[in-house]
UniProtKB/TrEMBL annotation:
It holds the Pfam family CinA_KH. Signal peptide: none annotated. InterPro entries: CinA, CinA-like_C, CinA_C, CinA_KH, Competence-induced_CinA, MoaB/Mog-like_dom_sf, MoaB/Mog_dom. CDD domains: cinA. This is CinA-like protein. Belongs to the CinA family. Residues 9-177 form the MoaB/Mog domain. Gene3D superfamilies: 3.30.70.2860, CinA-like, MoaB/Mog-like domain.
Length: 425
């Protein structure tokens, strides 16, 4: 098969996607894979299990792309229509493949079951299509050139099956067909404690560049800068990114906490590990969410010793040794209580650092003096100091948002303190 240079389009088939019953992880995976391969990709389509609408989607895609990548609709049930519909659209018959049928029967036999007759339809491919093997499930895909200059690839909707088939068969095929004109490499810098607009103003001179490109985007309180370069090789593209990354880090300073797969929890964990120091947390409004973030990191037991969820004021007094008179006077959501919580958990668990959160997550419980979204984060440091910071996260984005940004802001506060302690050593 000879493949013409051009762009790709992802077409995901499944009414369940349109209804929002499942998250479309396949499109995200394929988009990243196409970028890594340097294959242009300008459109994604989601279409339900309807042959008329699938054909319409194919007709549109054929006008604007040369590589059509389908996921979904390859199962044995009547609403799995991808292969039959493609055969009808391109006016070719379906052909049963004995090798596919034998493979499906063998997989059922391995489970001690006979193959239902309905699975036989999975052995049918449009005439001229090549089998794209599925080593895990029963639904094979195909690689097909229904007309000159157009390639169609199909994959099952199950993400694990699709990803394995893509890596094992599709990627080598595309690399051999001279689709890849250089490679695209991306590096994502991650920021906390600065808004998207403020960061964009700082790095304005780098936005809109040609190669590499720099693009900002925000997600749940975090801001990211994606640097993308096209080069003749991975090394060539990475070399283009390196000086841009260095300059962006210089401009943004401490607001940049990491890159790519880093998280605030992983970065803080590595800082504690390198310092040979330990941490304990005291939580009120986040209800254990801060401890959950910390323990998502493998090996966190080396530095995270535990926490106390002091949701009720009596627990703050009994376990964290918060002064009951100051608690009554200042209230649970206050700098005084946040600091005593941090100091109390540090002493109770015997760690180097203590970190606390107390606030009003809403939607109820606020007042003019202490509105929903008011949060105090306390930090007891390794050198015996204790301080706190006041945050006002607002009430428009809801309880989950306030709890999320509270725990992330707590980690960021600790991250900056750990950096400062390193600089002072």
């Amino acid at each position: 098969m000879e493949v013409m240079n051009g762009s790709a389009e992802i077409i995901c088939v499944g009414t369940e996607l349109l209804l929002g019953d499942i998250l479309n992880r396949n499109a995200q995976f394929l988009a990243r894979q196409l970028a890594d391969l340097g294959i242009p990709h300008y459109y994604q389509t989601v279409v339900g299990d309807n042959p008329v609408r699938i054909k319409r989607a194919v007709a549109i895609a054929c006008e604007r792309a040369r590589l059509l990548i389908f996921t979904g609709g390859l199962g044995p049930t009547p609403d799995d229509l991808t292969h039959p519909t493609l055969a009808e659209f391109f006016d070719v018959p379906l052909v049963e493949h004995g090798a596919i049928l034998q493979d499906i029967q063998a997989k059922f036999a391995q489970r001690g079951r006979a193959m239902p007759e309905s699975n036989r339809k999975q052995a049918l491919l449009p005439e001229g299509a090549e089998i794209l093997p599925n080593p895990i499930g029963s639904a094979p895909g195909m690689i097909w050139q229904p007309r000159p200059g157009l390639i169609v690839m199909t994959f099952p909707g199950v993400p694990s099956e699709m990803q394995g088939m893509w890596q094992a068969t599709a990627v080598p095929y595309l690399q051999q067909q001279q689709w890849v004109q250089g490679v695209l490499v991306s590096r994502t810098l991650r920021f906390w404690g600065i808004s998207e607009s403020a960061l964009a103003e700082r790095v304005a001179s780098w936005l809109g560049q040609g190669n590499p490109t720099v693009a900002p985007y925000a997600s749940r309180g975090e801001v990211k800068l994606r640097i993308t370069a096209r080069g003749t090789s991975q090394a060539d593209a990475a070399a283009l990114i390196a000086p841009v990354e260095t300059e962006l880090r210089r401009i943004s300073g401490l607001d940049c906490y990491g890159s790519d797969d880093d998280s605030l929890a992983s970065v803080v964990g590595e800082q504690l590990r390198s310092h040979h120091q330990t941490l304990a947390v005291a939580e009120s409004c986040t209800g254990g969410g801060l401890g959950e973030l910390l323990t998502t990191i493998p090996g966190s037991s080396a530095y995270f010793w535990g926490g106390i969820i002091a949701y009720d004021n009596s627990i703050k007094v009994a376990l964290l040794k918060v002064d009951p008179d100051q608690l009554a006077q200042a209230g649970a959501v206050s700098a005084t209580v946040a600091e005593q919580m941090a100091l109390g958990v540090k002493h109770q668990l015997g760690t180097d650092w203590g970190l606390s959160i107390t606030g009003i997550a809403g939607p109820h419980g606020g007042s003019p003096g202490k509105p929903v979204g008011l949060v105090y984060i306390g930090l007891a440091t390794c050198d015996g100091q204790v301080h706190s910071r006041r945050y006002q996260f607002g009430d428009t984005r809801g309880r989950d948002w306030i709890r999320h940004v509270s725990r992330c802001s707590a980690l960021d506060q600790l991250r900056r303190a750990l950096l400062a302690s390193t600089l002072s050593d």
